[in-house]
Amino acid sequence: MKYFFDFRVLRLPLPFIFDFLDMNIRFNFIYIILLLNGLFSYSFAQETLYFSDTEKQFNKGIVLFNENNFSAARRSFQQFMNTNCGDNEKCIEAEYYVAVCHMELDHPQAELLITDFTQKYPVHPYAIKAYKVLGSHYFEKGDYQKALDAFNKDPYFDFYDDQDIKIAYQAAYSNFDQGNYKEANKLFQVLKKGTHPYATKSSYYSGFIEYEEGDYETAEVDLEKAANDPDTRDAAYNLLPLVYYKLGKVDKMLQMVAEAKANNIHLPADALLFAGKVHYGKKNYPQADIYFSEYLKEVPLLAVDRITSYQIGNTKYNIGDKRDALPFLSNAADYTEKDELAQVAAYDLGVVALSTGDKDKAMIGFEQAHLMDFDMKIKELSSYNFCKILFDLELYAQVPRACDYFLAYFPNSEMVDEINNLMNVSYVNSGDYSKAIKILERKSSLTEAEQKAYQEAAYNKAVELANDNNESEAVVMLRKSQRYPINQDLLSASNFWLGEAYSALGVYDTAALYYKRVPENSEMYLSTLYGIGYVQYADEEYEAAINNLTNYINNGRTTEPRPKVIEAIVRRADCYFGLTKYEVANRSYDMAISYGAKEKVYINYQKAQILRAKGMKTDAYRSYKSVASADVNSPFAPLSLYHAAGLLQEEYKFEEAVKEYSLVIDKYKQSAVFLPSVKNRALCYATLGNLSAAEEDYKYLIDDDPTSEYADNAIRALQDLNNGAYAVTGLEQYKQKFKEANPESNATLVDDYNKAMKPYLEKDYSNAIYSLTNFITNIPSSKYSDDIYFALGVSYKFQGQFAQSIEAFHNVQHMPSKEKALLYVGDLEIQEKKYNEAINTYNNLEKIATRKAMLWAVYNGLMEAHFAEKDYEASKAYANKIIDQKIKRYELKAYLYLAKVDLENKNFSSALTSFNGIAAKASSSIGAEAQYLEGDVLRQIALQNQQGINENSTVTEKENLKKEFEESTQALLLVQKNFASYADWTSKAYLLIAENYISIDDLFNAKATLESVRDYTTVPGDKQLAIQRLMELQEIKLQKSAVVAPSN
C-alpha cells in the first residue's frame, strides 16, 4: 500500500507537499495555516455560547472522552443518541465515539461496533478515523497484519497531528514486522525528521532497514542518531558495530563494542563475532578469544560457519588451548564438497591433535587431508603422518594400504625409505593376516624381509583359523607359511600345528608325518609327544603310542596342563587295553582317577570291559549295571546295558537278557546298540519259544532299513522260523521288500556309488548335488544311502542352500553318520536363526552322541541357541557345564556367553570385567566379539549417565561424560588393533565409534569414520548402514545447528 500524508487543510499527496515546502514561501504557508486555525478556533468559541441542552449533552461526552473517562463518556454519548437520533450529524459522531469508548474499555463487542460503523458510513470522515482507531487497537494487541488491513483503508496521515503521527508510526512498524520494508521505510523516513517521540525510533528502524539492504553509510547516520536517545540506545548499539564493520571502520567498531560491554548493553552475536574477527586479523589472539567465547555462548558450535570455526580454532591454538581448538578445526574441515579450507583445516586438526597426544583425532585429520589435492605439500605431509600414526597406534592392518598410497603419489619423496620400512614391519605385525598375504602374493618377487613377513603372516593366520576350529583352512595357511622357511622356530611350530590340524581332521598318518618333523629342541616338542601319541593310538599303533604318551606324562607332569596329562594317562590305558595288557591298563585307569579324571563313567566302563575280557563275568555284569545307573544320559549307559544283556545271554539266562535288551530298546532308540539289541532280543525270544515276539523284532529290523546287515540276518531268521512249525505272517512281502532293497548286482551298485561320490570328494559341490541327487532318484534305498545323503547335505551347505542341506542331513538314519549329520543340522539352524529347531536338534543329538567331542559340540550349540531365544538361565547352565568339564575347545566361548548374559541383565560391571579378560586371552573371533562388547558396555554406561546431564550440569560433569564416550571409543579401536582379520567385528566397531562421536557432537569425526566404513568394509550390511547413517548425519547436523532467529 502506498502511503500519503494529510496536512489537514490541503489533502495532497506527499510528493506534492515536499515540492511545495521546498519553495521559498514555506514560512508564509505555515503562517497561513496558523492564521486559519486561529480563526476557526475563535468561531468555534463563539458558537459554544449558544449550545442547546442537547448539544451540551454531546459536548459533555466530548469533554469526558478527552479526559479519558471512557465509561462516563460512553453513557453520555449513548444518552445523546437515545434522544437525538435522526438526521442529526452529531448522532453519527456519537455512534463513532460509543464504539471507540467500548474499544478503549476493552469490551468484547468493540471490534464489531467499529466494523459496523465503517460499513454503515463508509464515506463519512469519521469512518477514516474509525479505521485508524481499529488499526491502533490491533497494533496494541500485537496483531500487526490486521492492523495493516485497517490502516490501509485510508493511507493518509496528518504529520501535524500527534495522534496521526502515532498512527503513522504504528503503520510503519506493522509493515516492518510483516517484512514490508519498502513501505515501512517510506513512513520511517518522514517520521525520523520530526521532533515527536517517534522520531529516534523511526531513525533506528530506518537504520535497520538500510543495514539489511546494504546501505551502510545511510544506516550509520540514522543509527548514530538513535544511539543518542536513551530509549533507542541499546538497540542502536546492537547494530552500529555491524555497520562499522561493514564500512571497514574496525577501530570505531571495537570502541563501540567496548563501550557497550562497559555499560552492560547486550550485544548481538554477530557484533561479538566481528569484534573477535577484527582482533584475530590483528593477531591479538587473547582479545579475539574473549569475543569468540562470548559469541559461542549464544551460537552452538555446529551453527558456526566453517571460516569462523577455523579462525576460532586457530585462536585457541595460539593462546595455548590446543584441546579446545580441536572441535572448531573439525567443524571447519567438515564439508561435503571438499575445498582448500577443508584440506588446511583437516591438516591443522591432525597437527594440533597430535600435539595434545590425541592420536585418534590426529589420524582422522591426516586421513581426510591426504585425500585432497589442493595443496600437494599438505597432501604429502598428511600422507606421511597418516602412515606414521597408524603405525604408532598399532593399526598395522591399515598401514600397508596407506603406505602404498603415499608411494603412488610421492615416489621421489625423501621419506620413501621410512615408509617402506613401516610397510614391511606392518606386514609382520598386522592382525589382518589375510590382507597382508594377499598384498605380498601380488608382488612378483619378495625381499628376504618380505619373505619373513609372509611366513609370519601365514603362520599367524593359520593359528587364528585353528582357534576358530577351521582346521582344513588352517592346513592351507600352515603349508603356505612353509614356502619361505626363514624363521626356523616358526617352521617347527608350523609342523606341530599341521600335525594338530590333520589329527583333528582324522588324517592320522599325515598328522604323524608332521609331528615327527618337530625337532627335540623345539619348545613345542613336549606337546608334540602327546599329539603323536594320540594319532598312533587312533591308528592302533599301541606300542609306539605308549612310548610317546609315557614320555609326555613323565616330562610334562608338572609343566603341562593337568587335564591334558590326565587325558594322556587315559589314552595310554586304552593302548594297554588294546594290547590286552589288562592289569597294566587297569592300573593306568586307576592312576587317571587318582589324578582327578573327569571321565569316570568312561573309565569305569573300560574297567568293566577288562573284567569281561578276563572272564570275570559276574563282576563285569555288576560293573556294567553300575555304569548304566551312574549317569543314564551318558553314551556309555546303553553300551553297558547292552553288554550286561550279552553276559546274561552267554550264560543262557535268556529271560533276564530279554529284560536288559528291552531297557536299551525302550530308553535308547537313537543309540548305536539299539538295532543290535533288537536283533539279540529276537534271538532270545526264539530260544525261549516266544516266536511271535521274535517275528515282530525281526520284521522291525527289515522295516527300519532293508539294506542293513541286521535286515539280512532278520530275513534269514524269518525264513528259518517259517521252515519250522511256525507260520510267519506276510513273509513273501518281506522277502520282496528285502530283495528290492538289495539287488543281486552288488558290483554295479558300488560303481554307481563311486561315480556319484566322485565330484563330492573333489569338492566340486555344484556337480556333486547333481550326481548325488541322481543316485537317490535311481536307487532310493541302499546300504550307501546314509553316505549319499550326508555328502548331499555337505554339498548343499557349501553352495549356500541351507534348507536343502538340512533336509538331506535329516535323511541320514544310522550311526555313526547320524550324529555328525545332526550336528550339521543344529549348526545350520542356528545360522538360519531357527533357534527353537536347533534346540530340539541338539537335544536329540545329546541322546545318541557316542563321542565326547560330539557332546561338547552339543553343549556349545545349546548355549548359543538358548541365548538367542533369550533363555539366559538355560544358556548360562550350558556355559557352566562347559567350564566345569574343562572343555578347552569351547571354554573361552562359555565365559563369553556368561558375560553376555550379564550384559543382558544390565550387570555392566561384571560384564565389563569379563569381556576385558576374554579379549586379552582369546586371539580368535571370540576375542574380537569380547573386545567389541567391552566397547559396547562402556557406551551403554555413558548413555545411561547422559540421561542425568542437562543445562544445569557443571562443566566437570559434562567433561566426565565425554571421557566415558572416549573410553568406549578406545576399547572399540582395539578391535581393529588386535583383531583386524575379523572384518565383521571391525566394521561394527567403527559404526559404534561413529555413534560415540555423534553423542559428543563431534560430527566431523563421525562423518569421517562412517565414510571409512562405507569405502572399505567388506560386510555388505555394514556398508549399507554406514551409507544410511551418513544421510541421517546431515539431518542431525541441521538439528544440532538450529539457532532461534532474533525477534524484531
Automatic annotation (TrEMBL):
Which example biological process does GO assign this protein? Answer: transcription elongation by RNA polymerase II
**InterPro entries documented for this protein:** Ctr9, TPR-like_helical_dom_sf, TPR_rpt
The coiled-coil segments of this chain are none
Task: Specify whether Transmembrane helix is a keyword of the entry.
Answer: yes
Record field: transmembrane:
27-45
UniProt TPR repeat ranges:
128-161
| Domain of life the protein comes from | Bacteria
> Quick check: keyword Hydrolase in the entry?
no
What name appears for this protein in its UniProt entry?
Tetratricopeptide repeat protein
Source organism (scientific name): Flammeovirga agarivorans
Lineage, highest ranks first: Bacteria, Pseudomonadati, Bacteroidota, Cytophagia, Cytophagales
